[in-house]
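user: Please supply your own:

assistant:
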Amino acid sequence: MTLIGLFERSPVIGALGALSIFLTACYSIFLYNRLMFGNYSAHLQPLLDLDRREFITLFTLLIPTVLFGIWPNLMLDSLHMASSNLIYELG
């Protein structure tokens, strides 16, 4: 949503912001592959798989992340009312 607003205000800066997000994602994937599948340092020990407790914790964090990513209005509607009341009281 931030990029959409930025594209409306300044398309050049919006394109640079989108490009920086894309390049950051590419570098993160490259770095992850290098750390997980390559043996570049003797100080890095191989990681074990997740146990049940860690999986449940990550899964419970994944559910609201996906839910708010698909339907952001579930959270934004309540924020809209609160921010509108605050602006009305201050103005």
